[in-house]
Specification:
The complex is a heterodimer of chains A (330) and B (268). Chain A has 330 residues and is α/β, with parallel strands linked by helices. Chain A is built from 13 helices and 14 strands. Helices cover 36% and strands 26% of the residues of chain A. Chain A has a 6-stranded mixed β-sheet with strand order 6-7-8-3-9-10, with helices on both faces. In chain A, α4 packs across α5 and α4 packs parallel to α6. By secondary structure, chain B is an all-alpha fold. Chain B has one domain. Helix content of chain B is 74%, strand content 0%. The chains are: A alpha/beta (330), B mainly alpha (268). Chains A and B meet through α2, β6, α4, α5 and α7 of A and α1 and α4 of B.
Chain lengths: 330, 268
Amino acid sequence: MTAMNRLHDRTIEVTGLRKTYGKHVVLDSVDFSVGRGEIYALLGPNGAGKTTTINILSTLIKPDAGTVSIGGVDVLSRPQEARRMFALTGQYASVDEFQTGAENLAMMARLGHLGTRARRTRVRDLLEAFDLTDAAGKRVADYSGGMRRRLDLAISLIAAPPVLFLDEPTTGLDPRSRAGLWSLVAELAANGTTILLTTQYLEEAERLAHRVGVIDGGTIVASGTPVELKAQVSGEHLVFSFATVDDVQRAAALRQNAESDLDELAVRVPTEHAVADIRSFLADTADHGVAVTDIAIAGPSLDDVFLTLTGHQAPTGRRASDTNDKEKAA
Amino acid sequence: MTAIELAPGIPRSHHQGFGTAVADIATMTGREVRRTLRGVDSLITAFVIPVCIMLVFVVIFGGAIESDGNYVNYVVPGTLVLCLGFGSASTAIAVAQDVTSGTVNRFKTLPVFGSSVLYGHVVASVVRNLVACIPVLGVALLLGYRPAAEFGGWVGAIAFAVLMILAFTWLSALGGLLLSVDAASSINFVFLFLPYLSSGFVPTDTMPVWLRGFADHQPYTPIIETMRDLLSGTAPGNTLWVALAWMLGILLVSYVGATIVFAKRVKE
């Protein structure tokens, strides 16, 4: 599906959303739309207004102004009808620890008013699809974080909603569970589910979303595909790798605009003339007795996009180099 | 992951009315019953502590205060009321947990009958507390409690107890919606302590004057007096109306308050 086609089929449409708490403006004129089967990521730091947006779309709170339509249903005037169009997976895996996985699912199927037979097959199918069949009879208290998240997502899908809201779906997950959840979400979208997710992780937005809305201070400051967003930002980076943390720190001290990444043992330096800058950096490090083990040239990352658009650093500790590993020249 | 069947083919009732509301409440009640039966803490709080409270009053205090059995007959109704209040208070913790865990948020995004999760908590509390009465009264009977009530008195006592549980539980549910889990767990101390400052355990005219004013006019005194009358087969007098007024008042305020707070309360 191309971006153009999606625009003609707006499953989620949000215009002029505004929410204030007293004098504090949480959302100011938020507009976006998401097409059928599209994954749209709201990317921003804590307090940017991501969760408030999700809470308004999922009927939990009312905005001061604006309109929200989901699958053609006006959410603000017909909330109960809208609730049949979407499911919400919140920031916290809100599953009952004292019930088993199967019991949690069956309860939600009952609350979704599924017929008895549909309930049984649906619970069984979802347990299988989410690799929880073996743990179906175990209480959720004994589940791992990844299993809880999978169950949480399975619960959201119990009534096969056309729209899914995922509020920071991978917070607190280890990298393997995170990757697993990403592929589940991608597959759901491929099968036609429209997905709105919020994330603080640039990597997550870049890997998963067809389109990204960068939200900061209650306003969407930019939106587009990850490629489009990156095209707005000029500048390549040189990524120098080192053998030790000490080397990284000493090398980073050589350039004012250098950014060090102690986890990856790398230093990133913005560049406009790659060859000349590599040569001078290598000369300077050699003078200080620091050995560079690897060099890569990286294009702009969503980190840079974020910095350019919002004027402040990307919100999380997960470094840009994570996203650029795949772009590294061998 | 195998492909998940999505949009089409999930038979689902779009009708909503009294029937689906009852079904939603029944589902939520089942959830609460499970929560009680599956936790060691909740089982002890619901069924063991009330029996212990009864034992303390009848065996320890009862033995010291009077040995001819009259104190037992005097103290059991008050202890029973105390136990029902204490048992109702655990709803506050469960509701606060549901808010904190984001479960309330999730339930509110479902096309279910509005505050069915609160109704589930309340219905489960009524069942739980009535069941807890059985061992509590059993112990009292074993230790010499001799209620003189006839059939009518028992029916009245049970109906009275149900109304009391409803009032106390809605009040606890309101507390659970407003408070953190820690603060909500201290609500049961109120229910545990307030009955002492009533005519439940000693007649109020044995109290210092300044305390007697409070004890005579707080809700536990007419509630316990009424329960004592009903169980002893005496026709309750004016105290019944005072007790009913208190309980219906608490019930109404708590129910309306909890419904309003539930609609507004969103975990951010």
